[in-house]
Amino acid sequence: MLQTSxxxxxxxxxxxxxxxxxxxxxxxxxxxxxxxIQLVLFMCVQ
Length: 46
Hints:
Layout: H1 4-30, H2 35-45
């Protein structure tokens, strides 16, 4: 059974991942004409 603290941790982790995904997708839309910058950003994030 999930404890309340575990549930809030999972929920905050999901929110963080969702925010990260939206951030990366919005940047990829802006930088579609420059694939080199996209590659550099991808390498920095990894």
